Amino acid sequence: MTVEATVFKGSSSGEIVQSTTTLETPKGSQVLVRTTHSGICGTDEHFKHRDMVLGHEGVGIVEQIGEGVVALSVGDVVGWGFTHKTCGRCEQCLRGQDNFCRAPGGEVYGRANLHQGSFGSHAVWDESFLFKVPAGVAPEHAAPLMCGGATVFEIMQTYVRPTDRVGIIGLGGLGHMAVQFFTKAGVDVVVFSGSEGKRAEALAMGANEFYATKGVQTFEGVKPLDHLVVTTNALPDWNPYLGLMKPKSSIYPLTAEWSNLVIPIMPIILGGMSIVGTVIASRANQKRMLEFAARHSIRPVIEEFKLDKNGVEEGMQKLPMSDREPPTREYLATSFDKSASAVRAYTDRFETAYARPALRKSTQYFEEVPITATFVAVFAAFAFVPVAVFIVFSLFSVLSIFFLALSTAFILSSTLLLFFTSLLLLTLCVAFFFALCTTLTLVSTYVGYRLVTLTKNRVGRPYPRRVVPVPRKLSEESESVVVVESEATDSETVKQESSD
User: Fold this and answer.
1) Contact call for residues 324 and 257 (beta carbons, < 8 A)
2) How far apart are CA 316 and CA 16, in angstroms?
3) Which of 61, 301, 308, 410 has fewest C-beta within 10 Å?
4) Is the dihedral of CA 283, 284, 289, 295 positive or negative?
């Protein structure tokens, strides 16, 4: 029996869109949950521009179960978070760190099950990733714990000892839950917030110390920290905090944003510090977190809205977002996500509208009339053979024609290129030959002209003479000196100058 679920999706414009989706009857270990409460997380803000159902902090009541469900019953109050399914076979899964499973087959919020989420009336999830909500935790308080509470509990359970001293930056959604979990575990908690306005609230939750950070360059008189948990919506200025860290201490940046982590490296190296990434919690810690919250009466501070389009929009507007301008890479990632989500949406729609009903009808037909169904299947298989042959032959023919056209075009273009190249070379040769002949003609004409001119000027003409005066002493010995000039002109005459 299918269920028509009302869901609230993101869109390319960021506007919340109300829609419907068809959910199949649970099979195997699947469970149909009617959603009663949902938390709103900063991650939902990142995904609101995608065509997908939003919400991953869900709590609801089990309405239907598959035949393979063993741990849940109809009427149970359950919650779910960021992780929907894991492979169960990789190293991380086998070590109990299934929140870090990245193997094929894993399903997480934003990558799979885009047709359903906690922003909706119903959803179908695997039994293994639904967690019973203890009686000591109200559903409205359990919803924010499924992501934010699980994230800070994972740090506390995995890395922190009761004797440690933990600094928490920020007292928002994550921060105020971290203060409650850590103080109940006996940890010495130090809260850092922008102003004095949250001092009373932090101390009331159990924090041991509170420091306002606005305008502070160096903290004076603060004891060193073993751990620093960053829960703000934007990364802080690290310089005031690095001086507070003990050697071999750890920093946990939980800020979910696209910017780079820029931090002074020398204090990290000299102090042997660790920067630790973490996401949500393993299934084991998710269960322990709910039990811990029930035992110690941990209650998130909440503001409630109706689970409809207006309520979702109003709740989303309450999220404190960073004023940082998203980088180009974030826009590209968003565009890619939009395209990928569109493909996944069409795939899911095809699976829901056609593939699953067809498979269900086929299975039902085989169960009712197995002999007839087998005959029809065999006949259909044989009937498909000529169709398949025709399709293959058609593809082969089309590809052959295509490659023939490409070959013809290549040969034609090569021929034209060769023709025009030859024409260009021939033109260059003719031009060179013409220039050479012209040059030789001009040079030979000039040389001939000069020879004729010189010959004409020398034939039958005596050498001209000119008398050059000499000193008196020399003239006594000789009456005159005659100098012969081979380059005399026609107008020159031979003159003789006598001595005194």
Assistant:
1) yes
2) 9
3) 410
4) positive
